[in-house]
Structure formats: C-alpha cells, structure tokens
Design goal:
single chain, alpha/beta, Dihydrofolate Reductase, subunit A, binds NADP nicotinamide-adenine-dinucleotide phosphate
C-alpha cells in the first residue's frame, strides 16, 4: 500500500471538537463551500475524487445533499446492510483504499470523518496531508478530532488555499494544510 497517498479534511474547534448530536456544531456556509471545492477539484480529466466516511457521518448528511455530488461516496461500516445505488460500502478503510487506488478513474481519496476514520488515517503513514480548518472558538461537542503528534507533520502553504483569517456569523477560522514528515 506504499503508493496509496491520501488525505484528511476536517473542521476542528478550539477545544478539539468536530461534532455534536450527530451534526456539525456550527453553521459555516463558506467553510462548507471550501470543503466541497477542495474535495471535488481534480487535475486529470475523466477522474473524480473519493470521499470516505464512517457510518455516522454518512447518516448525518441531509438527504438533499447526499451523495456528495461530483465525488465517489464511500461509506465504511460493518453493520450497514445496504446503501443507495452508486454509493460504495466497505467494512474496512484498507479494503476501500486498495480498490480505489487500483481504479484509474479515482484521483484522490479524502477521509472526511468521523473520529474513528480520522484516528486510523492519522496513524497511517500513507495519509500524507491534513487539511484542517481551525475554528478559533470553543463549541459544545461530543465528537472530537483524535490526538496526534504534531511533530510528525509540518505546515505547508498551497497557492489555492486562502491564508487570511475567515469570518462568518462572528466565528473566525483559518484553513491550514499539514504534510507528514
Ligand atoms: N467537523 C468535521 O469536519 C466533521 C467531519 C465529519 C463528521 N463530523 C461530525 O462527526 C459526527 C460523526 O462522527 P462519528 O465519529 O460519531 O462517527 P463516524 O466515524 O462517522 O461513524 C462511526 C461508524 O463508522 C464506522 N467506522 C468508523 N471508523 C471506522 C474504522 N476505522 N474502521 C471501520 N469502521 C469504522 C463504524 O460503523 P459500524 O458500527 O457500522 O461498523 C462506526 O460505528 C457527526 O456529529 C458529524 O456531524 C464532523
């Protein structure tokens, strides 16, 4: 699996939270637009990216927004028996990644949550990049981004990622990208 580089994307509050009661703890339309842009954009023609998510994250997406359009939607679950047509279901992340990377039509794989998948990915050397939106505010949360060793990552700057502080509904946040060392 050495060539299977893939990435994490997450929005994380100051107290490390990512979710509350099966939903996002905040409403940030522009942050959501950023998530959609970053996970959808491809460099090669006739390819799409895959967005890989746990069962709860899949079930948290409102019907009108799922499947996430323009991307191959992949759900990791050992208990779900079926998913709608066109959605890929795997019991294990490693099995999903193996199939996705043997498919020429897939450009990038994005881990989009929640905690269990972030934790598995952040401890896997093939997960090379973390796209983290740092929300500079504390929120009541019941789901958290896993602890990880920041010494394993360095911040990088991509030309297509805004560097300035964003603000929506009085909430400030920044787009950060980290590369595994
Ligand atoms: N802020 C953000 O960027 C962000 C991103 C995504 C989600 N969220 C929020 O986070 C919450 C959902 O996340 P969650 O952590 O509760 O659940 P989740 O990871 O989406 O789903 C958990 C389920 O997914 C499967 N799963 C997860 N990790 C796995 C692994 N490594 N290997 C195999 N199967 C795995 C298991 O399903 P089975 O039990 O069926 O086997 C597990 O019970 C919601 O509140 C959502 O809004 C926030």
């Amino acid at each position: 699996m050495d060539n299977f580089a893939y990435s994490i994307i997450a929005a994380v509050s100051k107290n490390g939270g990512i979710g509350y009661k099966g939903d996002l703890p905040w409403r940030l339309k522009k942050e959501m637009a950023y998530f959609n842009r970053i996970t959808t954009q491809v460099n090669r023609e006739n390819t799409q990216n895959a967005v890989i998510m746990g069962r709860n994250t899949w079930q948290s997406i409102p019907d009108k927004y799922r499947p996430l359009k323009g991307r191959i939607n992949v759900v990791i679950s050992k208990t779900l028996n079926s998913v709608p047509e066109g959605i890929l279901l795997y019991p294990k992340l490693t099995e999903a990644l193996k199939d996705l990377y043997s498919n020429d039509c897939v450009e990038k794989c994005w881990i989009i949550g929640g905690t269990g998948l972030y934790n598995e990915a952040i401890n896997d050397k093939n997960c090379k990049y973390l796209y983290i939106t740092k929300i500079n505010q504390e929120f009541v949360c019941d789901t958290f981004f896993p602890d990880f060793d920041p010494n394993n990552f360095e911040e990088i700057f991509e030309p297509y990622i805004p560097k300035d502080i964003q603000e929506e509904n009085g909430i400030q946040y920044e787009f950060k990208v980290f590369k595994r060392l």
